[in-house]
Amino acid sequence: MALRRTSPRPSRPDPPGATSSSSSKAADSTPAKVIVASVSPYFRQMFSTDFRDVSQREIRLEGFTNIGFEPIWDYIYGTRIEVEGEEGALATFRDPHFLGMKRLCQRISATIKAFLDSENAFRVLQIAEQYDYQDLREAAVAQISLRFHEVVQSRDSMSISFETLSSFLGRNDLVVSSEKEVYEATRKWLDHDSSRKRHLPDLLEKIRLPLLPYEYLMSVLLKDAVISGDPRCNKAITDARDFHIPELRHTVPKEKTRSRATPDSIWCMNGNGIIYRIRPNNWDLDGITRNPLNVHHAFAGIDRKLYVTGKSEMKIFDTEKNEWMEGPKPPEYFRCPATAVSPGSIFICGGHNENNENERSAFRYDVGSREWVRLVDMKYHRRLAGACYHDSCLHVIGGNPNSNKHEHLDLRTSRWEELAQFPKQWWYHALSPR
What we know:
four-stranded antiparallel beta sheet; single chain; 20% strand; Serine Threonine Protein Phosphatase 5, Tetratricopeptide repeat; alpha+beta; Potassium Channel Kv1.1, Chain A
């Protein structure tokens, strides 16, 4: 990184007292004192007439770093400032702040923004808050909110304070694929240090537990010995459970059920098996990869991975690594099934078997455990139906045959219920709960 003045001055001399150790620098000439006093309130006070060291030829400055002070000296003399990498920018930021050189700090702050990424976002945030640089803080907060899934994987994420984590858990603009990401990141932070367990109740109140799928809530949170053993967690867990009971939903605070931001990409597969990424703000298509099976298979996306399932195979595409992987084989052969997604699960309903016979079967694939679970069979045989997950229920509509039938499986009771028929026939369609 290089910072330049608009009107370059002659090359500056070497920093005075260059023989000092890395923890100190020295200034030993009157001209140098005049120059540094003109740009730094710290030096201005040091060289004032009532300061005891004003007549000394050499002043020892403790606490400075070689990497931080060299660019300061360059800046004072108006020559080119060289800062090497992220660490250089951060070190150069600390020393001029101590010297009260606000203009230089502002320029370095702008440079640090260019180094912002998922690995250093929490570190930059800490520095910005320590030195009260609002613009830099806002940039770090935006990076963390936008890349929360990646940032919480960084080494620095385990050393953030309770206050910092709590503040992010309360944000509506946290971009996550599901609330499950938020809970698991929080649990990882808690488990990193046993002394943090005292913060569990407060953090659970910040996490929007009602947005977790019912099956995840029941199988993970309610069976967690730490949560069940702390009575202060009861209110948060009760709210989460009550949200999935229609008669009690109105008792759950609205702020706990508000959706957060979602990733700004939509993935789709065309009739030729090419998988595209669509950016909704401009609807540009980016051809990413090709379906390794064929177009008559279930297609779903969850937790930054795409799943293509059919016949007796599952292929998984990692959108971050841009590569395909083998997934667990489904328990049965099927083609043209209905597909639905909930946080942590993929549902496959119906389709036809190897003999081209329509099926009533329903399966749930648990993304976390990588296991297939057989559900209760549907009431009707069908293929090319539409399906969606909503309110702990799996809805299946239309298809061929029974193209006007609507039924749903309540995952809390494991019972299918037939709902009002569609006024017209539907098949080969898509559903969404919103």
